[in-house]
Amino acid sequence: MIDIKSLTLPELEEELSIMGQPSYRAGQIFKWLHSGVKSFDEMTNISKELRKKLDIKCYISSATIEKKLISDYDDTVKYLFSFRDGETVESVLMKYHHGYTSCISTQAGCKMGCTFCATGMGGFVRDLTASEMLAQLQAEQEDGNIRISNIVLMGMGEPLDNFDNVIRFLRLVSDDKGMNIGMRHISLSTCGIVPRIYELADLKLQITLSVSLHAPNDLIRSRTMPVNKRWGTDELLEACRYYIKMTNRRISFEYAMIDNVNDTDACARELAKKLRGMLAHVNLIPVNTVSGSEYTKSKAERLRAFSEVLEKNGIAVTVRRTLGSDINASCGQLRRGEKPIKRVVG
Ligand code: SAH
Ligand code: SF4
After folding, report:
1. How far is the centre of ligand 2, averaged over its atoms, from the C-alpha of 242 (Å)?
2. Which of 92, 124, 191, 214 to mutate to test the pocket of ligand 2 (most atoms within 8 A of CB)?
């Protein structure tokens, strides 16, 4: 069966021409698919005969809402979605003054094993297809009767470990005949798969790249992020410099502040030294608690002191607001098949 929603317009034209159809038909079908229809029967300007043929040859992937949790603190919503094969992922919808941002998953699970991350602890199951990434957005739009304006690829999984499907998704979601969400409204977060950062840089997409750094040196980073044993901190920063050179885009370095692990003034000074002169800023996040992990958040005064050291050394820094912490919807808290821990709706 063909995963029709993962096809680009030229690929769809090719498939339809094999079926003896004119290319404008592909345009019509593409529009339907990206408006979120779940069956060919909803494509009312397509003949019944063709709809039937398509239904035999292709499937339209969708994300079914298995659970939905709404934060009492803010308007954050966490969804548990299931796909065709029953595999599940979580996704988080956040409401900001400028509109809705969706944080979607790119893999069911993750291979990278970061020790502070619930997804990493759960292991890896499979990559998501481009259509399954789109389906998460479509299900949220339909459920809330809203329009998503920004996307962050910061849910479950390592986007650059599912490179081809992620790039395909980026092209599809930004297509003006599709959801038309521009690259500048999309952020991708990586734990630092160095060769893929070079590949991404060469594509010169206008997305925002976030790099999960979380430590200023190999000693600390390798302790919390196994990926660092493969590609060390300096190698990673070199790739980041290349990315900035190629795209002229500012990189956002994520830094989860963990009590007594990476939060000393000396760490801040070392970090500032390594990032000096780069078109970048540091995003400090008090580490979120995850069951099975012993890490605790840095104290508020540590966070303040750390950011002051960075600022004094000329590094732009922000402290990230934590959304949805009461529903385990914050960074690093997403799991496959999380049981409802709070209010269940729908
Ligand atoms: N795999 C990608 C994207 C998904 S994780 C990556 O690692 O970048 C999204 C972000 O949450 C990353 O910056 C990640 O390092 C961070 N994160 C993971 N666990 C966390 C935790 N317990 N507290 C705060 N941030 C966490
Ligand atoms: Fe995977 Fe990112 Fe979690 Fe690390 S932080 S285990 S790369 S999802």
Report:
1. 23
2. 191
Please choose, from the candidates 167, 143, 158, the residue with its C-alpha nearest in 3D space to the C-alpha of residue 93.
143
Q: Atom of ligand 2 at shortest distance to CA of 111?
A: 1
Non-local CB neighbours of 166 within 8 Å, separated by 6+ positions = 106, 130, 133, 153, 159, 160, 188
Cα–Cα distance measured from residue 44 to residue 175, given in angstroms and rounded to the nearest whole number: 22
Q: Which amino acid is at 85?
A: D
Ligand 1, from 331, 333, 334, 335: best to mutate by most atoms within 8 Å of Cβ? 331
Residues 64, 85: contact at Cβ < 8 Å? no
pLDDT in tens, 22-48: 999 999 999 999 999 999 999 999 999
Residue from 194, 278, 266 nearest 229 by CA: 194
In this structure, which amino acid lies at residue 134?
Answer: L
Based on the fold, state whether residues 39 and 86 are members of the same structural domain: no
Within 10 angstroms of residue 330's Cβ, the number of other Cβ atoms is 26
Number of domains in the chain: 2
Q: Please indicate whether residue 207, judged by its CB atom, sits closer than 6 Å to ligand 1.
A: no
pLDDT tens digits for range 181-225: 999 999 999 999 999 999 999 999 999 999 999 999 999 999 999
Whether 108 is in a domain gets the answer: yes
CA triple 32-33-37, angle to 5 deg: 75
Pocket of ligand 2 (CB under 6 A): 110, 112-114, 117, 119-120, 157-158, 191, 212, 332
Domain extent for 128: 75-327
Q: Are residues 150 and 229 in the same domain?
A: yes
CATH of the domain at 103: 3.20.20.70
**CA–CA separation, 1 vs 4, rounded Å?**
9
pLDDT, position 346: 37
Look up the pTM and report it.
Answer: 0.95
Q: Give the Å distances, CA to CA, from 155 to 31, 33, 78, 259, 329.
A: 27, 23, 11, 24, 9
